[in-house]
Design goal:
alpha+beta; about 350 residues; single chain; 13 strands
Amino acid sequence: MRFYFILLSIFWTTICFAQELPPITQQQLENLAESNDEEPKDDHFLQQLEYFRRHPINLNDATIEELQAIRFLNELQIASLFRYRKLLGNLIDIHELQPIPGWNTITIKKVLPFVTVGNGLTINEHFRSRFSNGNNNILFRVSRVVEKSKGYNTSLTTHYMGDRNHLMFRYRYQYKDLLYFGITTDKDAGEQFLNGAQSKGFDFYSFHFFARRIGIIKSLAIGDYTVNMGQGLIQWQSLAFEKSPEVMAIKRQAPILVPYRSAGEFYFNRGVGITLQKRNLQTTLFASYKKISGNIVTDTSVHFSSLLTSGYYRTPSEIADRNRITLTSFGGNISYSL
C-alpha cells in the first residue's frame, strides 16, 4: 500500500503544479505533447519552473540567464528590466513592475509565481559551499500500460524482447542557478533489463555537471548538455515553442549552454562546453562525442539511410541499429555587447 501511495502523491503534486502554470504556457506544453508521436521526455523546463516556484528569482540581482530560463519574457522585456534597475535602482515592491516599459499585466501575472523582490546581494561565496547548501531530489518511477499491445506477442518475429515495465531513476542536485549535477537512467517498456542486449541494466545512462559564475568562467558543462545558438538553423536543442498568441514572442530565448537532465536519448551533446566572459566580450566553445543509432546501408558505399531518434530498442531490428553511428560535433561563437 505504501508504494502506491507514494506514486499517487507524486502524480497529485504534478497535477497541482501544472494547474499553477499560466494558461498560455500550459496550452503550449499540451500542443507540444500532441505534436509528438512518442512520449515527451524533455521535462527540464518543468523541473526548472518547479525549482523557481520553490525558490523565487530575486529580480534585483537576477541574471539574464535566470530570466531567460523562465521562458515567459522576451528580449525587450529583459533589457527593460535591467535598464530600469540601472536608472532607478533596485525594486522596492513587486507592484513596481507595472511601470517598466514592455511589462504588461499579462506578463506580470505569468512571472509572479517564480519571482520575488528583495535586497540585491552580490554573490561572494566560496565555490565549495555550493556543494552543501543546495537541494537534493531523487525520483524513481515505474509505469506500465494495462492493455497489452501486440508487440509482446512472442509468435511474431518482430516481437518486443523485454517486459512491459517502464523504469526511470533520477538524482539531481541544484544550488540556485550556480551548480547542477546528477544522473538519469531510463528503460522503456518492451526493452530488456539486466539480460540480453541490456546486460548492463538500464538502456540509457546520463550524467551532467554544470557550474556558473566561476571567475571569468560564465558557464561550464561536463557530461550531457544542450547548446542553443541562433534560432534553430545553427544549433538549438532545448525546448522551444513554435506558436504563441503573443506577437512579441518571435525570438527564441535560452542560455547558450544548459545542463541536460531529461530522459530523451537523442537531442543533447555529450562532452565539454564552456563560456568565458571578460567585460563585454563573451566566447563559447563546445565539443561532443557520442554514439547514436541508425540504419547502416552497404551498396556502392557504406552510409546510413535514417537515424533512430525515439530511443526505443525493443525489437531485434531496433537493437541491431543501436549505436552504429559516431556523432562528433564541435563549435563556438563570440559575441560583444555594447
